[in-house]
Structures are given as C-alpha cells and as structure tokens.
C-alpha cells in the first residue's frame, strides 16, 4: 500500500494513522510523545489540525478518558512568522 | 526477582539511551528510568549538530568515533536517524579568531581529523550558498561533521534495548538512591516503586547534581538556559552548520530530511539555573542574527521556539567516571555537546562497567580532577 492510500492523521508532516499506531505500540502514552516519535503535530499548523485525531487514537488504543489526557506543550509563535518580520520586530 | 536488573540508568536522554544500548548489547539486563518521556530533558531540545572540531585530543578522538557510529546508526538500529554529513563551518571575522582556528586545525589534524581545513571567504560562499561574506576572512571547515534527528536516535536506542530484553520506564522520577554498606543497591521512585540493580548510572544531564546528591556524591554540573527556534521546511540548500562565535552571532543549520532551519545562540550574559522559559527577545534576536549571515532566508517562517539546558562543568569537559560510592557511576555534564558525544560516550560507559578496573576511561573526564583548564571551541 502506498502512503497515499493510507489514512493521514497529520497533513503538515504527512504522518499516517499506521505510523501513529506504531508509536503507541512502542510505548507512547501522550500526544506529546506521539509528536516526538512521529512528528505529528510538529508541522506548519503546530498540531491545530491533527492533535484531536492523535488524542482520539490514544483514547481508543489505551482506553484513556479524554479529560485524563496530558495536554500537549504549546509553543510560540502561535502563527508562523517570517524571519524578516521577527527580525524587524 | 522481577524488579532486579544488572544496571539501572537514571535519565533517558542520549547519554542514558546510548549507554543502555551498549550495555544491553554486552549482554546485561538494563533498565532506564526517566521522570518524563525519553528525550524530555536536553536531548529533545537540542539542534542536532554533530562535529569533530574540538581542541582537546580526547574530545576530537571521541567525536571521530561518534561520527563513525552515527554513520552506521540507521542500519544498526533499524530506524532512520536522519544522519547527514553536511559539515560544520566556523566563521572568522577577525584576525585573532583566524589565528586561533588555524591553531585548532593543526591540533585536530594531529589527532587524526584529516578533512578539516581553513577555507577563504569565497570558498565559504561556495560551501554555504547565500552566505554574506562582507567582512569575513574565512572559516574552519570540516565536511565530515553532520546532523541527526535527536528523537529518532533516542527512540531507536530504546527500541533496541527492549528487543535485547531491557526495560524502559518513563514518567518515573527517581527520588532515592538505595545504598547499603558503601555500595549502591538500587533506586526508589516518587511513586514509591523500588528497582534493584548491581550497578546504577547517573545520566541525568542538567539534573546530574541533584541525582548525585541522592547518593551523597557531588557532581559539579550546572544547568544554563539556551533557547532555540525552528522554521518551516524549505528546499535544502546544502550548506553546513554555520557557527559565528561573535557576541552577536549564533549557530544554525538546515535539516536535510525535511528542510527546516534550526538554530540557537549562547546568550551574553549567560542564564544560569533550570528554566524552560522562552523569550520574545530571542524570537526577534535570533532571526536578526540568521539574516545577517544569510539574508536570503528573510521569507522563511519560524514555526516554533523553545528552550533547554546546557549542562556545564567548570572546565567545559564531560564527567565520565566511577564514584566513591561503589557501583555508582556518572556520565553527565556534556556541556552542550551531549547529543554528538552520545554514541561514543555510551560505548565508554558500557566498557567501564563491563571491564571493571579503577581508572576513568579518559583522565580528562575524571570526576575528581583539576577543573581549571578550558575547552576553547564551546
Ligand atoms: C538549545 C540547545 C541546543 C543544543 N544543540 C546541541 C547540538 O547541536 N549538538 C549537541 O551535541 N548538543 C546540543 N545541545 C546539548 C545537548 O542537548 C545535551 O548535551 C544532551 O542532550 C545531554 O544529554 P543527557 O542525556 O546527558 O541529558 P538529558 O537529555 O537532559 O537527559 C537526562 C534525563 O534525565 C532525566 N532525569 C532527571 N532527573 C531525573 C530523576 N530524578 N529521575 C529520573 N529521571 C531524571 C530527565 O528527565 C532527562 O530526560 C543543545 C542543547 C540545547 C539546550
Ligand atoms: S496537521 Fe499535524 S502539524 Fe499540522
């Protein structure tokens, strides 16, 4: 199966559902760990699109309650900003 | 006994993971404990640079070994660690810096690093497309230096450790080192679990002093905050890691595997203590410093900033040794170079433990040493 046939969880970093499931099998129990193992959430949108999907997979696989899940570390900047704009700020 | 291992390693950063891997390979039953996830300390916060350009023979040789190990790593661990020998270029904008680089190059070649050389400004521009060479005299260039992706390395080691029968406990903070009769027996965690072992290794990076204190051993490591940022991925330019030692300089490189630029600088004055705060000052200052060197990067977007700790010793060299407490070892204080040193240091840790003896693997990394000399290429 080519990557394009698979279910994509993180569009920015092109991470498939299968890759997230492997990370969970390897011991990831939090969205932060999944992020560091697969890069899902490290892309251009910084996880705004995929975080919910990753949390759903964790909940399903590990029987976690959504309210018990550890929040992902949020890092600035909140929107991508060019080096030039930042340098001039 | 279920909770007994041959070796317990406190800290699941690069040093703990590499040490654990080589110990497991030597047939020992290993358990790594980390209070967070693997790589949650300095390792996951570093910028992935790997170089052999140091000024002490011990460090140069150790790093040559590490570079060789990084080169074999993807195959050995069965996972792509994104090793790429994109090189390192140290820039000299004044005569004094040039002289010192020339001296260092002589030392490095003497130690066996053959491909390091001085290149003039025009050649700098050739190896680093887009580099502004205004006022540049040239640089110290080593094409066999490189980069790798820290999380892939740490996780690759951890998977192998598990395959070899070892164990990895995350979110397990060690709060006690158990001792009897001058000998280490194991550790206790905050959660109250006890793990016993014949040998315990302190690989707690910036927290090595706190962990050492649990065993009554002083490990002179001081944390120091360093900030970093990363951009979106763009087309790979093929430039080496650029290092600008001027007070308004910095270091940055582009990852080959995804085209992201990643960089940091050493703040003046330094910021001592444990802290993972990020500042707006860095978020505007670092782009200024990057654009000063490579103006064409202006439109590239920053997507994330963070910070982590360097783990400094008084002389800028690591501590890799036995301790006065029998069977308690320390491998920490990598002084901001722990990711690159990791593979070679991990091998030394394993050898020190399996071969026994009383001498430290390298005299310059001994726990009890004269800390007054300095590593110049920090
Ligand atoms: C911004 C920045 C850029 C850097 N760039 C580079 C670079 O390009 N190249 C390079 O080689 N190095 C770089 N470094 C330095 C490098 O990150 C460190 O030297 C290296 O990661 C140290 O590895 P370590 O395993 O000793 O420590 P760590 O990775 O910090 O691992 C120690 C672990 O111990 C755990 N721990 C602590 N206390 C306890 C406890 N009581 N119980 C259980 N676990 C505990 C921590 O959670 C941590 O995971 C950089 C550092 C920073 C901050
Ligand atoms: S969709 Fe995952 S980071 Fe954007």
Any key phrases for this structure?
heterodimer, A: 89 residues, mainly alpha, 4 helices, elongated, B: 378 residues, alpha/beta, binds flavin-adenine dinucleotide, binds FE2/S2 (inorganic) cluster
Give me a quick take on this structure.
Chain A has about 90 residues and is mainly alpha-helical. Chain A is about 40% helix and about 10% strand. Chain A contains 4 helices and 3 strands; from the N terminus they run E-E-H-H-H-E-H.
Description:
The complex is a heterodimer of chains A (89) and B (378). In chain A, 38% of the residues lie in helices and 8% in strands. Chain A has 89 residues and is mainly alpha-helical. In chain A, strands 1-2 form a two-stranded antiparallel sheet. In chain A, a hairpin with a 4-residue loop joins strand 1 and strand 2. The mean pLDDT of chain A is 88. By secondary structure, chain B is an alpha/beta fold. Chain B has eight helices and 18 strands. In chain B, strands 1, 2, 8, 9, 10, 11, 17 and 18 form an eight-stranded mixed beta sheet that branches. The mean pLDDT of chain B is 96. At the A-B interface, helix 2, strand 3 and helix 4 of A face helix 5, helix 7 and strand 16 of B. FE2/S2 (inorganic) cluster binds next to loops of chain A.
């Amino acid at each position: 199966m080519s990557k394009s046939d698979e279910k994509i969880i993180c569009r920015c970093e092109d991470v498939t559902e299968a890759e997230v499931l492997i990370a969970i099998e390897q011991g990831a129990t939090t969205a932060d760990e999944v992020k560091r193992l697969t890069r899902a959430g490290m892309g251009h949108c910084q996880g705004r699109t995929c975080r919910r999907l990753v949390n759903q997979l964790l909940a399903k696989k590990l029987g976690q309650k959504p309210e018990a899940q550890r929040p992902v570390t949020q890092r600035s900047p909140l929107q991508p900003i060019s080096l030039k704009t930042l340098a001039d700020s | 006994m279920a909770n007994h291992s041959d070796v317990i390693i406190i800290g699941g950063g690069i040093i703990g993971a590499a040490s654990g891997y080589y110990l497991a390979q030597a047939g020992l039953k290993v358990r790594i404990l980390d209070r967070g996830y693997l790589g949650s300390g300095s390792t996951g916060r570093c910028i992935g640079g790997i170089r052999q350009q140091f000024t002490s023979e011990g460090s140069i040789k150790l790093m040559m070994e590490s570079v060789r190990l990084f080169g074999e790593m993807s195959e050995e661990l069965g996972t792509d660690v994104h090793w790429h020998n994109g090189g390192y270029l140290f820039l000299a904008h004044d005569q004094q810096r040039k002289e010192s680089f020339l001296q260092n190059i002589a030392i490095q070649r003497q130690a066996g690093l053959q491909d390091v050389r001085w290149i003039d400004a025009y050649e700098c521009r050739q190896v680093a497309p887009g580099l502004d060479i205004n006022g540049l005299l040239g640089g110290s260039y080593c094409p066999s230096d490189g980069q790798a992706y820290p999380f892939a390395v740490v996780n690759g080691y951890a998977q192998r450790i598990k395959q070899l029968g070892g164990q990895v406990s995350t979110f397990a903070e060690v709060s006690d080192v158990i001792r009897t009769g001058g000998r280490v027996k194991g550790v206790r965690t905050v959660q109250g679990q006890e793990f016993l072992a014949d040998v315990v290794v302190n690989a707690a990076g910036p927290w090595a002093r706190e962990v050492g204190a649990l065993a009554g051993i002083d490990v002179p490591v001081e944390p120091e905050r360093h900030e970093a940022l990363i951009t979106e991925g763009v087309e790979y330019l093929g430039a080496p890691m650029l290092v600008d030692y001027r007070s308004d300089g910095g270091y940055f490189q582009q990852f080959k595997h995804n085209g992201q630029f990643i960089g940091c600088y050493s703040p003046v004055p330094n910021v001592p203590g444990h802290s993972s705060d990020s500042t707006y000052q860095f978020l505007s200052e670092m782009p200024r410093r990057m654009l000063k060197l490579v103006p064409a990067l202006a439109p590239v977007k920053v997507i994330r900033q963070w910070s982590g700790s360097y783990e400094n010793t008084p002389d800028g060299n690591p501590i890799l040794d036995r301790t006065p407490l029998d069977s308690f070892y320390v491998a920490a204080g990598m002084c901001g170079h722990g990711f690159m040193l990791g593979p070679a240091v991990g091998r030394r840790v394993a050898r020190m433990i399996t071969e026994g003896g009383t001498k430290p693997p390298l005299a310059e990394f001994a726990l009890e040493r004269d800390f007054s000399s300095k590593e110049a290429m920090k």
